[in-house]
Amino acid sequence: MGEEGGGRSCGTTRELQKLKQQAMEYYRENDVPRRLEELLNSTFYLQPADVYGHLSICSVVISTHFEVHENALPELAEVEEAERTSAVSTAVQWVNSSITHELQGIAPFDQAEVDHLLRKFFASKVQEDKDRKELEKSLEYSTVLIPLPPVPPPPPPPPPTKKKGQKPGRKDTATEKPIAPAEPVEPVLSGSMAIGAVSLAVAKTCGMLLNNPLYLNIALLKHNQEQPTMLSMPLLMVSLVSCGKSSSGKLNLMKEVICIPHPELTTKQGIEMLMEIQKHINKIIEMPSPPKAETKKGHDGSKRGQQQITGKMSHLGCLTISCDTIEQPLVLIQGICANLGLELGTNLHLAINCAGHELMDYSKGKYEVMMGTYKNAVEMVDLYVDLINKYPSIIALIDPFRKEDFEQWDSIYHTLGSRCYIIAGTASKSISKLLEQGNIGIPKSNGLIIKHTNQTTMSDLVEITNLIDSKKHIAVFGSTEGESSDDSLVDLAVGLGVRFIKLGGLSRGERVTKYNRLLTIEEELVQNGTLGFNEEHTFFYFNEEAEMAVEALEAAAAGELLEPTFLTQSGEESAKTRASSG
């Protein structure tokens, strides 16, 4: 027995020695000993009161606000790259100097205090930038010796010609109001990403010290440090194909055709289903085109045949395909679902990212929905109504118009808001502006896409989701177009309890990483018995009279009750529930 025991002990010792050698080689290859020595030496010279806090290391990545332009001119790409580099350099400088000094001595557990100091710091930087610009402007004016001649006003437009056969008093539909000019782009202060990055780093550090995953730390922040008994996974919004301006086909309207698995499906089941659909799309793209069928009129009035669908992978993680009619991508997905035994409107639903701001041709004052096909804002409302009538499985329109077309946002909300989510993404203001104004009703919508970028702190995300919830809107947590491989935004979406998460397609490493993180979190919640369930798609629609009554009651701080109608995806009234005006 003794010899047996000695043999086992000897074997264990050899295994430990082997592991130690492997560990030493691994650390040496990654330059760990030298870096640790530098860190310990700097700690000794600094002699911080909180040694362990000083040694805590947390890395974060935050995406920039810059959009990805696939067909951008080299000159534009160079300018944007220079701006991006400058912004990152300024952010690093802020973090290494001023922000580090501002946060010295603050415990990472006090997220609210950290975010408050970050906001103050950022406000001072905004004021500095404003003062600098005003000084530059005054210096420019002082150097002008000769006043410039006034610019003559443009000549008035010619009076509209009356169409032949037009009845007296009838409004000529050809007479159109001039479009509102594009609003100035909301300025982004160079270096602002430092604020969002540091706020996220503090939240991650707090989670590490408490041995909590980031999503739980955010949930505690959202619920005033009371741990929720259940957490629901956000519903997937997965981009399957793109038929926007960057595609080679005639169709411009659909920057993203998005699939939403049924709420009763788990995240894993939803991803598996969508991967199967994506696989079939890829096969069709690779197949040679079938012979052309008989010509029919398409949904937009153009000719529809069996055109060959070609595609390439986009930065959105989905295929950019060339389509020549509005119906073509929808029929494609519909056919694939039918072959797989899936039913659109039951097993899954669709959403369309229209990217209205990209479609406007300002020289014509119209939206170019297809190459050479232009529609004014009023005609666009009719187009969307017809589309939803023909394809009721579409339950969300993202950015159907540019933000300046307020009347059309109102019109489409009142026309389709009871059976479809009208979601503002690019058309919405930044989170900072929304919180400053306390108003998410412009443009009129029942959902917002929120993103963690620039100066957005964890406290800002909690505040904006609380505001969205209070207005009976839905929150969609989205990724930026220039996406990184950091998966923290998935934890943020789960912790904040948003309704949807929009990460792009199921391809490209930076997006696949996030889908994998979703699967990991779902597994953890299942194991802990804390996975909540998602409800059916419900559209909270208030008519104008009810909204005005709510506003009046809020202004008077009255406690009376209203009865909004809650509608399910099928459009049937499911319940009339009494809800307080608050």
What does this structure look like?
Belongs to the enolase family. Its EC number is 4.2.1.11. Pathway: Carbohydrate degradation; glycolysis; pyruvate from D-glyceraldehyde 3-phosphate: step 4/5. The chain has helices at 2-29, 32-46, 51-55, 74-102, 111-143, 193-210, 214-222, 267-286, 327-339, 356-359, 377-390, 406-416, 431-437, 458-470, 488-496, 509-528, 544-556; strands at residues 235-243, 254-261, 296-297, 303-304, 311-313, 319-321, 348-353, 360-361, 366-370, 373-375, 394-398, 421-424, 447-450, 474-478, 500-504, 538-541, 561-562, 565-568, 573-576, 579-580. The chain has 582 residues and is an alpha/beta fold. The chain has an eight-stranded mixed beta barrel, surrounded by five helices. The longest helix is centred in the N-terminal third of the chain and has 33 residues, at 111-143. The N and C termini lie far apart (77 Å).
Identify the CATH homologous superfamily of the largest domain: Enolase-like C-terminal domain
Largest sheet: 8 strands, mixed, barrel
Might you state the CATH topology name of the largest domain? TIM Barrel
Count of the separate structural domains: 3
- The rough form would be described as globular
**Alpha carbon gyration radius:** 28 Å
Distance between the termini: 77 Å
Total strands: the figure is: 20
Query: CATH class of the largest domain, please?
Result: Alpha Beta
Major β-sheet strand ordering: 1-2-7-11-12-13-14-15
Question: Helix tally?
Answer: 17
Helix content: 40-55%
